[in-house]
Automatic annotation (TrEMBL):
<dbReference type="InterPro" id="IPR042188">
    <property type="entry name" value="MmgE/PrpD_sf_2"/>
</dbReference>
<dbReference type="InterPro" id="IPR036148">
    <property type="entry name" value="MmgE/PrpD_sf"/>
</dbReference>
<dbReference type="InterPro" id="IPR045336">
    <property type="entry name" value="MmgE_PrpD_N"/>
</dbReference>
<dbReference type="InterPro" id="IPR042183">
    <property type="entry name" value="MmgE/PrpD_sf_1"/>
</dbReference>
<dbReference type="GO" id="GO:0016829">
    <property type="term" value="F:lyase activity"/>
</dbReference>
<comment type="similarity">
    <text>Belongs to the PrpD family.</text>
</comment>
<dbReference type="InterPro" id="IPR005656">
    <property type="entry name" value="MmgE_PrpD"/>
</dbReference>
<dbReference type="Pfam" id="PF19305">
    <property type="entry name" value="MmgE_PrpD_C"/>
</dbReference>
<protein>
    <submittedName>
        <fullName>MmgE/PrpD family protein</fullName>
    </submittedName>
</protein>
<dbReference type="Pfam" id="PF03972">
    <property type="entry name" value="MmgE_PrpD_N"/>
</dbReference>
<feature type="domain" description="MmgE/PrpD N-terminal">
    <location>
        <begin position="9"/>
        <end position="246"/>
    </location>
</feature>
<feature type="domain" description="MmgE/PrpD C-terminal">
    <location>
        <begin position="276"/>
        <end position="445"/>
    </location>
</feature>
<dbReference type="InterPro" id="IPR045337">
    <property type="entry name" value="MmgE_PrpD_C"/>
</dbReference>
């Protein structure tokens, strides 16, 4: 008997999805993932790229708008607000990651679900249900590629996020399974996201999740009104995996997309970032930070950073650019800079994204000594491990390995840690009383409405516009 197409199976799951069937611990974790994203978005209001993006979107939108922009005290039309809020969540690269999917799922799903739920007047329960549904499907769609999208230059957060946002939007619209099939087929023509930004530190990656959110809302709404989409969105001859991966499509495991739906909850496997940089850099940044106490500023001859082969293109190449990041974004995607920063200061925080930090001569001198090697023992993409060896001029060698990155499923960051991270981030732009109000609203989202939450998040923050 022929198996139903993947889009049909996802549609059936989505049409029948109910929040009461989600285990309590998954709902609790989901709310903390939302809290983490909100704290990052609030902190992100302080950065120049946020101001520039809002100016451009405001110019396109013209007067009016009914969806609040986080931390800015103003509203935009639905899809523009989704694009802006997603940029705020993703802009500092401090947002969560699903390791197997190699994807930032919350950064597209939450702004899309929140914005659309606000427009539709949905309850907080429906918002939470749509968010969890989007997380469960997006992460599986990413995992099926086995890390392949990065290898051919696509950014899964934008590319795959489009489909998860489509399913979340369809859930909020209450579409039946057939319309949800059509919506996914429409989304196939919208999905996008290029990794070319890695070569020059362009800001374009920050736009990917919001574009995914706006595309998902558009696809679902077109399907609601009868627009016809292709049915084999994923496994078709020119479906997602074959068209984007080419020969690498052969390594995909499409069975992962529907395996365990409604039984195994991938939301629990989403990793919180302890470091505000590409997740691929974390283990080496942590390893270097741990070596900081033993190093004590001794003259260095050579530094070796070992990372999974699958991340070399993203955080190690081209090596000259990585050793001298030209801007904050290049710094966040640089193994040499993250190692140099960790070794010198014993930590990598948002302060490392300031021009004074990534232009510091002493830090750059250390980064120039970093050589990157592929580690054949790395368990990637299950973990984003790393190892740092520091050869000192006096003949000593300092070495530390972090085979399992902090935040991975076997080294989880607790909900209490997420609350602490939220307060650290929120304190950069709002006072403690406002932060506490937001925390309470997010963690009790089922008792409120999507609009009430969106309006609270839209309360103006202090704006400083950092570079």
């Amino acid at each position: 008997m022929t198996q139903p197409q993947i889009s049909s199976r996802l549609a059936d799951f989505s049409a029948d999805f109910r929040l009461e069937r989600v285990p309590a611990e998954v709902r609790t974790r989901a709310k903390h993932l939302i809290l983490d994203a909100v704290g990052i978005a609030i902190a992100c209001t302080q950065w120049d790229f946020a101001r520039v993006t809002l100016a451009g979107l405001r110019e396109l939108a013209g007067p009016g708008g009914d969806v609040p922009v986080i931390g800015h005290g103003e509203s935009l039309p639905l899809r523009d607000a989704v694009a802006m809020n997603a940029l705020l969540v993703h802009g500092l690269d401090y947002d969560d990651t699903h390791p197997a999917g190699v994807i930032h799922a919350t950064t597209s799903i939450l702004p899309a679900a929140l914005g659309f739920a606000t427009r539709l007047g949905s309850s907080g329960r429906d918002l939470l249900a749509a968010y969890i549904l989007g997380m469960e499907t997006t992460t599986r769609l990413g995992a099926a590629a086995k890390g392949g999208f990065h290898q051919v230059g696509f950014h899964p957060t934008g590319l795959i996020g489009t489909f998860g946002c489509t399913l979340a939007a369809a859930r909020l619209l209450g579409l039946d399974a057939e319309r949800i099939v059509q919506a996914q087929g429409i989304a196939l023509s919208f999905a996008s996201g290029s990794l070319e930004f890695l070569n020059d530190g362009a800001w374009t990656k920050r736009l990917h999740p919001g574009w995914a959110g706006a595309a998902g809302i558009t696809a679902a709404t077109l399907a609601k009104n009868g627009f016809v989409g292709t049915r084999a969105a994923y496994e078709g001859r020119f479906g997602l995996y074959n068209s984007h991966l080419g020969a690498l499509a052969e390594q995909c495991d499409l069975g992962l997309i529907t395996s365990g739906l409604g039984e195994t909850w991938e939301t629990n496997n989403v990793a919180i970032k302890p470091v505000p940089a590409c997740h691929f850099t974390h283990a080496c940044a942590d390893a270097a930070s741990i070596l900081h106490g033993d190093w004590k500023g001794a003259p260095v001859k050579r530094i070796v950073a070992r990372v999974p082969a699958g991340v070399m293109k993203t955080v190690c190449e081209p090596i000259d650019n990585k050793r001298r990041p030209a801007n904050a974004y290049e710094a966040q995607f640089s193994i040499p800079y993250s190692v140099a920063t960790g070794l010198r200061f014993g930590r990598f925080t948002l302060d490392a994204l300031e021009p004074a930090a990534f232009q510091d001569p002493q830090t750059l001198a250390l980064a120039a000594l970093v050589e990157c090697e592929a580690d054949p023992k790395a368990d990637f993409p299950r973990y984003y491990g790393g190892e740092v060896l520091v050869e000192l001029a006096d003949g000593r060698t300092l070495k530390h390995s972090e085979p399992v990155n902090r935040g991975a499923a076997t080294r989880p960051i607790s909900n209490a840690d997420i609350v602490a991270k939220f307060h650290d981030n929120a304190a950069r732009a709002v006072n403690r009383a406002q932060a506490d109000r937001i925390l309470e609203a997010v963690l009790s989202v089922e008792q409120g409405s999507a609009r009430d939450l969106a309006q609270l998040l839209g309360t103006p923050a202090r704006l400083e516009n950092k570079q």
